[in-house]
Amino acid sequence: MQLAIDKTIMQDAREDAKAIAKAIKAFIDEKTTTSVERSILRLLGIDQATDFGVPLVNAVVDHIVEHGDLSRGVCHYMAHAVKKTDKSPKAIATLIASGKMHMKDFAKKAVPDYSVLTPYFLATEKIIQHQAKKRREHLHEYDVPEKYVIVATGNIYEDIKQALSAVEKGADIIAVIRTTGQSLLDYVPDGVTQEGFGGTYATQENFRLMREALDESTKTHGRYIKLVNYASGLCMPEIAVLGAIERLDMMLNDSLYGIIFRDINMQRTFIDQHFSRVIGAYSDIVINTGEDNYLTTTDAFDNAHTVIASQFINEQFASLAGMPSRLMGLGHAYEIDPAKPHSFLYEIANAQLSRQCFPNAPLKYMPPTKHMHGDIFNGIAQNTLFNIAAQLTGQNIHLLGMLTEAIHTPFVSDRALALNNAKHIETAMLALKDELTIKPGGMIEKRANDVLKDAKKLLESIREMGLFKALEKGTFADIARTQDGGKGLEGVFDKHPHYRNIPMERFMQALKAGESNE
Amino acid sequence: MNKKLLLPYGDTLDDGKVQLSFSLPCPCNPTGDAAAKATAEAMGLYDVHVVHSSALGEGFSFYVVYGMRKDPIDISTLEVRDVETQAMSKDEVEAFIAEKFDRPLVFIGASTGSDAHTVGIDAIMNMKGIHGHYGLERYKGIQAINLGSQVDNETLLEKAKEHRADVILVSQTVTQKDIHIRNLTAFVELLEAEGERDNFIIVVGGARISHALAKELGFDAGFGPKKYAFDVASFAVNALFDKMRHQE
Lengths: 518, 248
Ligand code: B12
What we know:
Chain A has 518 residues and is an alpha/beta fold.
C-alpha cells in the first residue's frame, strides 16, 4: 500500500525544517541550564539526596549559582575540586550539601585539567554501554506494530502488577505515566514512590524496580519487554541520564510538548532537549515525540499538517543531536471526529503520509482520545478502526486505545481488552496491506498530498519568522507561548568563553565515530 | 407524589436485567467464577450468570456477568440536585445584565492545582466556545479573564481580588485518587480563612463534576459535561442579582 507523494515537496519541507532546527541550535549552543549541569553531575556518578530530600546534584548546582558563576559549567568546578581534594565527585557533593566544602574560590580559577574527571565519566559510560548491549541482544525479537500500553496507578508496586498482567496479555512496551505536576518540579525526586495522581513519579528507584520486574518476565516469557518513561519537563536531561543508566528503552522527549502543554520556557527546554537527545542517541534509546497532542486542542482534520510539520522539525532536532532515524519515534494520532464523513479515509491518508515521509523512523501512533466519551462500547469501535489503520499503514509504536479513555486511567481489564482487540486485528489483517493498493488520484492520495503541501507551507513560514516567533503566534495546538515566559527561564545561563560540557563532547565524538563505522 | 416504580429493562418490562463487567485480584478458575457470582449477588442481583471469564495474567481475572434486580426503585422519592436556575440564552443573559447591573461583571477562571487541562475552561470562557456555543468572552456585559492551567489556589484568589472579580470559575479534570476533592476543598478553605468566601460566587466544572458534589464541597454550583457558557452565565448572573438584593 503506497501513496504517490510529491517528492520535491517532501524534500523542500525537510530543507525548511533543517533551517528551522539549525537556527535554534545556533541559539542554544551559547547557553546552558541548571538541569543540563545537574545531568553532567549525574554522569559523574552523583546520585541520591540529602536527609531533607534535596538531590545532591541540586545541592551542588544551587551552591554554584549562589556562590559562584554557573556559566563556567560544573565540569570546571568539579575538575578543580577533584584535583584539590583527591575525592570523588560524589564525596565532594556530599560535603557541599552539608556545608563542609565551598566551591566559591574555583569560580575565578583558570581552566582546570578536565582529565581528572575522565574516570568518573567512563564509569557511567560503561554502565550505559552495558545496558545498551543487553537491549541489543534482544532486538531481533520484535514484530511490528509493537503493542504499547500505559500504567498509571500512582503507586509503583501497583504499576508493576498491572504491567506484568499486560505482558501476559501480549504487550510489547510498558510506559509508566508520570504524576501530574512532576514536569514542573525542578528536581528529580529520590527513591520509591507510592503516591501519584494520574501517574507515578519518575525516580531512579522506580525505574529500577520496573526494569527488574520486566526483566524477570522476559525470563519466563522469552520476550524482551521495553520500558518507557518521560524525559520531559524541567528535568528533561537528568531523566534521560537515569533512563540510560536503568535501561529504559524509549523515552518521551519533546520540548514542544513541554512548551505548549506545560508552559515550560522555550529557551530552557530547547537547551535541555538537545542534551537529552544526545544522551538518548549515545545510549541507543528511542525517543517519542508528542505532536499527536496538538490535535487534542484543535480540530484534527484542519490541523493535520501541523503534525507533519512538527515531525519534520523534530526529525532535524534529533539529527543535530547525532540521533539516527531508527531512534526517532515521531508522533502522530488518530483524532479526527468520527462524525465527519470519510474520517477513516483521512486517517489512513495521514498515517500513510507519516509512514512515507519517515520510512526509517519507528513512528509512534496514538489512539483516539479526544472523541472518546462515556459510551465505552462506542469506544471499542473507535479503537478497532484505529487498530486497523495502524496495521494497514505499518506503524511501529502502536499505543493501544482504552475503551474507558474518557473516564479514568486504565483498569487492568481495559488494557487486556485493548490488547485482545489489537491482536485480533493484527491476526486477521496480517498481510492485508500488501494486498491493497491505494487508488491513484483517489480521495486518500489527494488528501495526503494536500496535507503535505500545507505542512510545507507552514514550515516555510516558520523558517521565515523563526520557531520562537511561530510559538509566540500559537502555530501548534492553537496555544501561544512567549520566548521569555513560562517556567524555568531562571535556570538558563550564557556560557562562559571557557565553558565545557565534557560528556556532551564525549558522546558526540562517540556518535560520530559510530556513524563512520556503520 | 405518586409512587413510580422502576426496574432495569432487558427485553421485557420488569425483567430487571443487568449486565456488569469487573476484574478480581484472583486467578481465573472455578473459585474465581464463584467469587464473581457472589460479588454480583452481594450487589443485590438475583439469578446471576457469569457468562465470560478470562485470566488477566497471574493473579487477576476478568468477568462479564448478568443478573436481575427484583426490588424496584421509586423514582418519586429520588432527590435530584441540579442547578435550579432556568438556563437563559446568550442574548437573554446580556439583557439581564444590562437591566439589572450598572457595570460589567467580572468572571475569572483557571484550571487549578497541577491540572494542565485547558480545553474545558477554554470552552466556557474563550471567545470561540464549543459545539456552537460562544464562550463568556463574547458576552456583552461580562469581562472574562482566563488564567489558563496549573494555577495554584493562592494565585487564583490573588488575581480574583486584583481584578475585583464577581465570579470565580475553577476547572478540574484530573480526578484520580480524588486529587480534585483535595484541591477544591483547599480552595474553599483558603477563601474562608481569608474571609473572602462571601465576596465571590464560586463555580467548579469538569468532566467528573456534578452540582451535588460542588455543593457538598462548599461551591455555589457545579457543571459537568454538556454544559456551556450560557448555563454557567445564567446561574451566575442570577446568583449575583440575588446577592445584590440581599445586601440592599
Ligand atoms: C485533551 C486531553 C489532554 C491534553 C490536554 C490539552 C489541554 N491543553 O487541555 C493533554 C494531552 C496535554 C493531556 C494531558 C494529561 N492528561 Co489528559 N486528557 C485529555 C482528554 C483526551 C480530553 C479532555 C478534554 O479536552 N475534553 C473536552 C472538554 C471540552 O471537556 P471537559 O473538560 O469535560 O469540559 C466540559 C465540561 O466538563 C465543562 N467544564 C469543564 N471545566 C469547567 C469549568 C467551569 C467553571 C464550568 C462551568 C464548566 C466546565 O464544560 C466543558 C464543555 O461542556 C481526556 C480523555 C477524554 N476523552 O475525556 C484525557 C484525560 C482527562 N487526561 C487524563 C490524564 C491523567 C492526563 C495526564 C495527567 C496524564 C499524565 N500523567 O501526564 C496529563 C495532564 C498532566 C497535568 N499536569 O494535568 C485522564 C484523567 C483521568 C482522571 N479521571 O483523573 C483522562 C480522562 C484520560 C485517561 N483516561 O487517562 N490530556
